[in-house]
Amino acid sequence: MSVLRKNIVALSVLQGANYILPLITLPYLVRVLGPENFGRIAFAQAFIQYFVVAVNYSFDLSATRAVALAKDNPVELSRLFSSVMTIKIVIALLGFMLMAALVAIFPVFEHDWVLYCLMYLTVVGNVLFPVWLYQGLGHMRHITAFTIMARSLMVIAIFVFVTNSADYAIAAGLLSAGMLMAGLIALVFIPRLVKIRLCWPGFSRLMQDFLAGRHIFVAMMGGSVYNSSNIFILGLVASPAVVGYFAAADKLIKAVQGIIQPVSQAVYPHIATLIARSRDEALTFIGKLLRIIGGGMLGVSIALFLLAAPISEVLFGGKFDQSIHLIELMALVPFLIGLNNVFGAQFLVQFDLGRLLSFSIILPALVHVAVLYFIANNWGASGVALLMIFTETFVLGIRIIGLQGENKQMLWHVLLARTPQTKNV
């Protein structure tokens, strides 16, 4: 079996675990905690997600590609690892100080400050777990093993320690601890895979690695703004119970759209290698990927729309009937996300079209955030769900139109699997 296929299999196993474990814990948590306290956790997760995106910066893409190109150079790999980890630690410390200040200042946070501190363990876990290193080296099976091991232990702990609605802070801490434990295991295991010596990379190297991913980070932050802000802003204008209904539907949609993650993560370094060898070969591969992911996710979206009621009943129970309509409204999101992933991470990033990538996220994100409060305040969770469809469609439209103007031959190569004479971009 080829390395690419092994990586896809490993990440598929991980994604399968990411389905099975939430299918065990999510129905339990929504029933034990109820819509209100489940909504509190969802609101805290949305708030902390801003810090998770900040600490990950663009490294899951930019550093992964750098590792794939430097994996046979121990000196360069050591400098890269030391630089990326230093940057992430600094961002995490600054983020914690900012979070603590916001929780202390604003009444909406202060009553649940323990909840937010426990949730920040997710940020620490993202610092410690160098997914970008393992992914760039092609060791996806280790990512799978570490994550499944840690999350399985947390699942057991949730059933043991979360027994009533008052235990929502404990539930939040256990949900966050899974990433923290996986990160610690991953760090300890690194010397068995590759020789890396920690060093001070120097300020110039830190700035080089930081600036190298700025366009990708802007795009990722923009995406996080209009994803995390949905629950966050809804929580400012609606009751915790309404947030809980929306969060339950949103978690289902995000779990479903996660189907593409194993393939996306596995093919990313493969496409980088193909580009170095043949741009036309890489474009042909991306075209095949677009058809596979697009067709598959369209089928998933249709199934979600048709089966929203029984899915909600099985996963969330009778108290979450209001989530059914929201699932139906959001059903198209996985299909749009699938297309945007291929055009974004696999096309724009790989061919260094960072400006178009940033623009395709920032403009829709600004529009989304500009109208989000008004829509949430006037049309509630249903309005926010429809806004999600609009924004993802807006992103896709900008990327296709932008590629048409940037390099029409490359775009049509991907769409029609033709092999034109491409120009440099």
Explain the overall architecture.
With 425 residues, the chain is an all-alpha fold. The protein has two domains: 1-212, no CATH class; 214-425, no CATH class. It contains 19 helices and no strands. The chain has helices at 3-56, 62-70, 74-105, 107-110, 113-119, 121-128, 131-137, 140-161, 168-189, 203-212, 214-237, 240-257, 261-277, 279-306, 308-316, 322-330, 333-348, 354-406, 408-416. It is globular and about 55 Å long. The model is unreliable at 420-425 (pLDDT under 50).
Q: What's a concise summary of this model?
A:
The protein is mainly alpha-helical and 425 residues long. The protein folds into two domains: 1-212, no CATH class; 214-425, no CATH class.
Low-confidence stretches: 420-425
The tally of beta strands, per DSSP, is: 0
First CA to last CA: what distance? 34 Å
Order of helices and strands: HHHHHHHHHHHHHHHHHHH
Q: What is the percent of helical residues?
A: over 70%
Characterize the biggest β-sheet.
none
User: Based on helices, strands and strand pairing, what is the structural class?
Assistant: mainly alpha
Our estimate of the beta-strand percent is: under 5%
Report the average pLDDT across residues: 83
Number of domains: 2
Keywords, separated by commas or semicolons:
425 residues; 2 domains; disordered C terminus
Any chance you could write out the topology, listing elements then pairs?
Elements: H1 3-56, H2 62-70, H3 74-105, H4 107-110, H5 113-119, H6 121-128, H7 131-137, H8 140-161, H9 168-189, H10 203-212, H11 214-237, H12 240-257, H13 261-277, H14 279-306, H15 308-316, H16 322-330, H17 333-348, H18 354-406, H19 408-416
